[in-house]
Amino acid sequence: MASKNLVSKEEEFKSEFKRRVKDEAKMLYRKTLDEVSDRHKFVCVAYAVKDIVIDQWIATQKAYDKADGRTLYYLSMEFLMGRALGNMIINLSSRNEIKEAIEELGLDLNVIEDQEPDAALGNGGLGRLAACFLDSLATLNYPAYGCGIRYKYGMFQQKIEDGFQKEIPEDWLRHINPLEIKREEYACEVRFGGHVNIEYRDGRNFFVQEGYQAVMAVPYDMPIVGYGNNVVNTLRIWDAEPVVHFNLEEFDKGAYMAAVEQENLAKTITEVLYPNDNHYAGKELRLKQQYFFVSASLQTAIKKYLKNHDDIKKLHEKVVFQMNDTHPTLTVAELMRLLMDEYYLGWDDAWEVTTKCVAYTNHTIMSEALEKWPIELFSRLLPRCYQIIEEINRRFCQEIEQKYPGNHEKVAKMAIIYDGQVKMAHLAICAGYSVNGVAKLHTEILKKQELKDFYEMMPEKFNNKTNGITQRRFLLHANPLLADWVTNKVGDDWITDLPKIKGIEIYADDKKAQAEFMNIKYQNKLRLAKYIKQHNGIEVDPRSIFDVQVKRLHEYKRQLLNILHVMYLYNQIKDHPEMEFYPRTFIFGAKAAAGYKIAKLTIKLINSVADVINNDASINGKIKVVFIENYRVSNAEIIFAASDVSEQISTASKEASGTGNMKFMLNGALTLGTMDGANVEIVEEVGAENAFIFGMSSDEVISYENNGGYDPMEIFNSDMDIRRVLMQLINGFYSPQNPELFRPIYNSLLTKEETGVADRYFILKDFRSYAEAQKKVEEAYRNEEGWAKSAILNVANVGKFTSDRTIEEYVDDIWHLQKVEVKMD
Ligand code: NTF
Q1: Is 76 exposed, middle or buried (0-12, 13-18, 19+ CB in 10 A)?
Q2: How remote is the CA of residue 349 from the centroid of ligand 1, in Å?
Q3: In order of start, what are the domains of the chain with their CATH numbers?
Q4: Closest Cα to residue 20, out of 55, 54, 44?
Q5: 546 falls in which pLDDT band (50, 70, 90)?
Q6: Cα–Cα distance, 246 to 713 (Å, whole number)
Q7: Mutation test residue for ligand 1: of 363, 366, 650, the one with most atoms within 8 Å of CB
Q8: ipTM for the whole predicted complex goes beyond 0.90
Q9: I need a surface site. Which of 225, 489, 609, 701 has the fewest CB within 10 A?
Q10: Does the pLDDT of residue 745 top 90, yes or no?
């Protein structure tokens, strides 16, 4: 009887869902479902799914209000969400019924999912980490908001034309976005510029900003569905709209121009994501964006708190702001301003609250990524915040003085304002109650090198939180074949408890399991080969080794090392056609920042090398080189699943953590990498015998750097193979029409012309060691059983790298949140 009830309940759910989808087609498009386009079908299905989500969303917010625990506000300029629909469906408890209903409607879920544009509101690792964190927070029942910017144009679309990158604006909102809700009721004003007046009343000074320009910040909420727990959290992203409250009579007084300026400000502020990864451009508009979303997020967080509490001095008991890198560091000044100017706390009380509410994550040691703003620009744009930072700085310098009397060098090095600049990292560390790095090695480098002075003065603030990734998107959704295989072997606990995946370890030596595993990899390689054929027109051999480097293009990530090695291999094969060589497909995917010349030239080089090698019939397809256009979250899911070799070859010490490395591991690719970032911990988990490690250590790199670099000319002079490859950069071998084309790359390796340092990223220095490691990869792959074993062991030992673990560590050490259960009728 009970089971019959259950069945009929499921049937009821499905028919209700199907009815909804059809109704949407009717209401939105005046058509029947089979008459509308695929994209419209996506919209109809998305609305039907949203209908289920909304009930849980409401229930979640009610449960949170009732529990009255602490809420996390994860402040980030970037959330690289990718597509939402497919992920939402797999996370919902009713996933099976929804999938069946969609099938019964005669729709293909894959085709539907493909209609959704990626929400590309981020550059790379930092933004994708924020997205994984939101998934984990919801899955782990923690009250949390993501707070960010609703860029009209997200990360640009990359087109490859004649081998060169072209940037096309990514107009992701051109069509309706069914998965968001505009929340006009939470709109608030954000003010820029003008000057600060002091008014004396009631026995104290009040600071009022006058002559400012204002915009309305208007939030859009996107649901973040937890896995099977009824929790729906919120990603709140802010759009800017003009404040229209000028009256016509004042036009002649110049108010008209002011009004037009305000309108322009609103239009430009959320227009576009800055496409720089690990690089700070220092643009005024960027600072405006930062203040804009920080101020709006803080204003609403405080208002929400005061709805149910009356003592603003206890804000920290219910609220924590995590600053994702220094980009939202204005949180410190803006919170002080709101507490003092709007809620009338004195300095000491405001400081006490602020320093208990804010925490900071550092994501890079790359000096060109450090944010520092000229005080001229800063004080003009944010006069009151600047005043406050001056006072914070004055007090901080006093403290340094006290701790290190007479040590002026310390003050000079640690001050927040110095040399005419506001140093955002210094402000974040001074005010934050926690400072964390994103992998063990990275945190150690912060403590011993980059932030040494700060660590010495306040060691208690420093801690490590090794990054993680969500297995829900990057295995369950991205690789259903492997996900099912794992579930068949060890049950499905791994979906919310990744260390359980360790259970597959006992199959590492099992011949049958190895064959199944390798067959799944093969199926996924077929899927990627099909994608490559469709998008690149290149035929690749799914039996070849898929050797993959996908990530942002940056010199420190050393895509150049990879492609120079391909050039070297090609020379070898041409010289020794009889040489044994296991067929290899080198796959690249990378966007270069629009203004990053040498990075863009590296893309051209990869494509030029691909052209020559792929069209040389004499090598019998032993090497293929593929550059996948427009690498992004949605095609990444296909790529990881199909990879054999994971290239993680950054110059040691430069990659703070990396997270792609973890996604490859989760999908059974073997790491070929340096001892950098989280690679170190990956090797710790899986064992050095199941990875290919090469190159200098971070200590060696740092000690060379402290001594002004090394001399690449010695290598150029003594290593004929390397010299030959480098000469091919400038003799037209890969660019017959323009032999000078790649000269800047050649120069960057051998002269100080480009950056003041020759081969700043030690590419030639690590080349031989890399080539050796690559040889070992080939040998290992020839032994199919051995390879399968290593691949299975990679998956089995990936448990540590779930973002669920990372989030639990943040909760235990920094955020102190309480889990909230959400029950549905
Ligand atoms: C990036 N940092 C690092 O370069 C990656 O190694 C790391 O995995 C991610 O952060 C996430 O922690 C940045 O993008 C930034 F902004 F700090 F430069």
Answers
A1: buried
A2: 34
A3: 471-804 (3.40.50.2000)
A4: 44
A5: very high
A6: 67
A7: 363
A8: yes
A9: 489
A10: yes
